[in-house]
Structures are given as structure tokens and as C-alpha cells.
Amino acid sequence: MKTSRYSHIMSHIRRQDGDEGMWVIQTNDGHCRGVASRAEGFSSVFGMGDWGRLMGLLHDRGKESDAFQCKIRYSSGYDISKMPTDAAPHSLAGAIVMHSKYADGMGLMSNPIAGHHRGLYDMDEFRNLLKNGAVAEEVSRQVPDLALRPPSVRLKGMEIHHVVRMLFSCLVDADYLDTEQFMDETSSRMRESYSSIVDLKERLDRYIGRFSSSAPSVVNRLRSEVQRMCEERSAMTPGVFELTVPTGGGKTVASVVWAVNHACRHGKQRIIIAIPFTSIIMQTAQVLREIFGSENVIEHHSVMSDEMINERTRLAAENWDAPIVVTTNVQLFESMFSNRPSKCRKLHSLANSVVILDEAQSLPRSFMQPVADEAHIHVCSGPRFCYVRPHSR
Questions:
Q1: Which of the listed residues 59, 218, 288, 335 has the most CB atoms within 10 Å of its CB?
Q2: Alpha helix (H) residue ranges in 45-184
Q3: Is the CB of residue 227 less than 8 Å from the CB of residue 257?
């Protein structure tokens, strides 16, 4: 192995105070450790924390090459004495190093590493990359010796592709967040001020309590009964559920009563509501903002006006880290089946979340099982009334 001609290996570099400020350097080792810590936290939610950590440690191994170090110094203006002679791609090196030790044949970790900037590769294309790719001599081949615990569920067939996407999501989001924390501290701090699920339950209880003194009527009594049953059944073991309520029966609030109480009792991190129609999304989001406060509800769909989007909303829409997310079925399924970093980045947020599919009867039946495989789901549909009950798969 050839020794790098650079005394320190950079991952990112910026000015401390504007154009004339001092240079601040994030070392590649520091960045990779930061990404590893975040990716481990994300992937531990579905029992693969060690896998996430190993990907984080190796994902930017290619930045150790002299070509990349020349490029980052020149492009940033830190050192313009030597112009880079090539594009200096860095993502594939970590994948090759990973594969050389772990023989990661299905690309569970190596494919996410290779594609963490451009997106996941098709398997045939990826195998050719591993076979024909090269690693610069100055890049270390050393791999951390981690004992990777197997997934808690036996994987078969197409399920492997879902696991690849989940690990890919963890790595991509961890990489973005660690880079953002170094390069843009202002944006990074804006992500850290959400209420907990327990706090949201208190807000929900106060909201419902406001209507306890409402004039009695048949509709109000039915709505209260639906909410009471939803709260009772929120204690049931996590799984797939259905709630069928007629129009005017208070389905939106009732489903949220179930979801928030279920999340509190079973340690879920957030509630994601997917709706097929944008007109319903805006109406639902407005109700949820009244209950939980606008700062805790992220509305994410294609017809949002400029007035609806602020910096905090934009940031939260990138990875769905808010406690309440209201989105479209299109956003949900694109995240589940895409190979692009920007789409898949939010996918890991589905793990350990309560996912509500509103107007579920509008979904093709073949779409239901892939969603059920990703998260515990509470399915809301109409038009007839029934108790909240486990859904038969």
C-alpha cells in the first residue's frame, strides 16, 4: 500500500466566517465516525445497528485517494497550486473494500455504499462494478472486525431488496445529516425542536376535552363512542388494523386518537398519514395543526404553495423526522420502491412508526403487503362502521 502524500485526509472544508474566515476542516475519519453513529442509531430500530455502523465507517473510504484530496483542496480554494486531473469518484472504493472481506453477495451493505450519492445499482450492473472496479493504492483496505448479527426475520426473495433500501436510507440520511451539521449549523439546529409523542398525547387530550361539553346529539355521541373504542384498542399488540367509519363519523380524529395512544404505549417514534387525494391532505393537515401545533406537523405533497413551505418544513420533508407527517400515497410508495437517495432518504423513518393509510380502499390490493412489511400499519377506510380490530392479511 502506498502512503498518501497528504498529511491529513479531508472530508469537508469550509470558511469559519465568510469568504475571508479561517479554514475549518472535517477529517474523513471524523466524518465517517459521525455517519457510522447516526446510521447505527437509525438501523438499530429494525435490528441491524451493526450493519449501519459498518457502512458508515466505510462509505467514504475512497476519499483517502490522492486524486480526491487534490480535488477537494482545489475546488474549495484551500490549495489551488495543483489542478485535479480527473473527477476523483470516491463511493465505489468503500464498496469494494467491504465486499473483499464480507463477501456481501447480495449487496446489502456494499450496494448502499457504492450508491450513496448516485443511487442504488441494478444487481448485474453492481456485480460488474465490483469485478472491474479499482481502489487507489493509498486507500486503506483495513475493515473493522464487527460481528454482524443476522436480521431477526429470515429474508427471502424480494424482501432482500427492501432491506437493501432500508440500509441505504439509513446511510444516506446519516451522511446528509453529518455533513449538514458541519457545513450548515443553522439548518442542523432547526431539526432538533419537536415535541415528544407523550407531549402530543397531552395536546390531543386537551383538544378532545374541549368538546366534552358540546351539545349532545346523535352524531356527537357516535363520534365519542368511536374515539373511546379507538383509545381502548390502542393497547393491542402492534400489527395491521382497520377502522371503518361512515362519513361524518370523525374518522380523522378517531384514527389519530388510536395512533397517538398506540405510539405512547408501544414506544413508536412518529405517526405517518398517507392519503390518496391532495384535497383531503390539506384538510387533514389543518385539523392536525390545530391539535398538535404547526411546528409538529409536516405536510409533504406536490401542490404545496410557497407560503406553506418554510425552511423548517423543507428540512423535515427530506427525511420525515417530524412526529406527525401527512403525505401522499405517491410519496410513500416512491420512497419504498425508488433507488434514488433523495427519495429513499426518508424510508428508514417508517420503521417503528404508526402508519395510517387513509381511504385505503382506493389502493390496489397488491400494494398493501409491501407496506405492511415495512411498518406497523393502522388502516382507515369507509364507508361502513365497525370496531377497531386486527386486520386479516
A1: 59
A2: 49-58, 66-76, 91-102, 110-114, 123-132, 159-183
A3: yes
Distance CA 82, CA 14 (A): 19
CB 139 within 8 A of CB 93: yes
Q: Which residue has cell 468503500? A: 94
Overall size of the chain counted in residues: 393
pTM over 0.85: yes
CA separation for the pair 285, 298 (Å, rounded): 8
Residue with C-alpha cell 472496479?
133
Per-residue model confidence as pLDDT tens digits over 109-139: 999 999 999 999 998 899 898 888 889 999 9
- Amino acid letter, 112: P
Radius of gyration of the chain (CA): 24
Q: What are phi and psi of 277, to 5 degrees?
A: -120, 130
Nearest to 280 by CA among 352, 353, 219, 360: 360
